[in-house]
Amino acid sequence: MKKVFIFSGLGADERVFKYVTFSEFDVTFIHWICPEENETIEHYAGRLIEQIHVNRPILVGLSFGGIMATEVAKLIDTEKIILIASAKNRQEVPFYYRFAGYFNFHKFLPTRLLKRPTRISDWFFGVQTREDRRMLAAILRDTDDVFLKWAIDKIVNWRNTILHQNLKHIHGTADRILPIRFIHCDLKVTGGGHFMTVNKSIELTEKIAALLHESL
User: Fold this and answer.
1) How many helices and strands in the chain, by DSSP H and E?
2) The whole model's pTM is what?
3) C-alpha–C-alpha distance, residues 102 and 97, integer Å
4) What is the Cα 135 distance to its own chain's centre?
5) From the candidate CATH numbers 3.40.190.10, 3.40.50.410, 3.40.50.1820, 3.40.50.300, the one assigned to the domain spanning 3-213
6) How far is it, in rounded angstroms, from Cα 14 to Cα 197?
7) Which of 162, 179, 190, 196 is the most exposed place for a label (fewest CB within 10 A)?
8) Where are the domains of the chain?
9) Using alpha carbons only, what angle is made at residue 214 by residues 209 and 216, rounded to the nearest 5 degrees?
C-alpha cells in the first residue's frame, strides 16, 4: 500500500480533509511544529522530514501545506507531489502579497484579528454553510499565534523558482485567497474556493484519485 503524506493548510489539520477519501492509499498527516526563532522555510522543511519514514513518498499539500510540500521535495526524492489551492513558486503568489512582504506590511497585522471569524473571512475562504463556518472558526481559533505569524511571513517572502517535474496542481476557479488568474494548474474545480476540501469534497476526491493513479 502506497503512503501519502498530507500537509494541511495554514493552521489547519486533518479536519479539513474529513470529507476527502484516499481509497487504497495509506494516509499520514504531517503535523505542524513550532518554528524556531528566525527559522528559514528551508530549515523548517528539513525538520518536517523527520515525520516521513518511507522512500519516495507521495506528498499532498493544501494551501500553505503545498508550499511546504514543495520545499520538502527539494530535500528528498518523491514519487509525486499534488498541490491543492496552493502556489508552486513565487510567481503564483499574488503580487499584492509579495508587495506586503517587501515593505513588511504583514508584520503590523494583529494575530487576534486574523484568528477572529468574520463575514469577511467566510467570504475569502468561500464557506457556504453553518457547519463550514463552525469548522473554519475552530481552525482559526486553534491556530498557534507564533506559527501563524511565521507562516505568513514565509508566504509573502517565498523565493522559490523551482518547478518540480512530478508535481500536479488542483485549483478552484473561485479561490479568493489565491485567485486562479495567478495560477497555472493541471485540474480545475469549478466554483471551488479555498475551503473546497470541505464543500467540494466529492469532485476534489475524484480529481485527487485520478492524479494518484496517473503515471508520470
Assistant:
1) 9, 6
2) 0.95
3) 9
4) 17
5) 3.40.50.1820
6) 10
7) 190
8) 3-213
9) 140
Is the distance from CB of 70 to CB of 159 less than 8 angstroms?
A: no
DSSP 51: G
CA distance 12 to 203: 21
Q: Indicate the SS3 state at residue 34.
A: coil
Q: What is the pLDDT of residues 119-168, one digit of tens each?
A: 989 999 999 899 999 999 999 889 999 999 999 999 999 999 999 999 99
Contacts of residue 193, Cβ cutoff 8 Å, sequence gap at least 6: 85, 125, 126, 127, 172, 174, 175, 176, 199, 200
Alpha-helix runs per DSSP H in the chain:
41-48, 64-72, 95-102, 111-114, 119-125, 130-142, 145-156, 196-199, 201-213
Of 61-65, 110-114, 172-176, 197-201, which gets the smallest average pLDDT?
A: 110-114
Residue type, 77: D
* Cα–Cα distance, 164 to 166 (Å, whole number): 5
User: Is 201 in a helix, a strand, or coil?
Assistant: helix
Between vectors from CA 140 to CA 198 and to CA 137, what angle results, nearest 5°? 65
Do residues 30 and 45 lie in contact, with contact meaning Cβ atoms separated by under 8 Å?
A: no
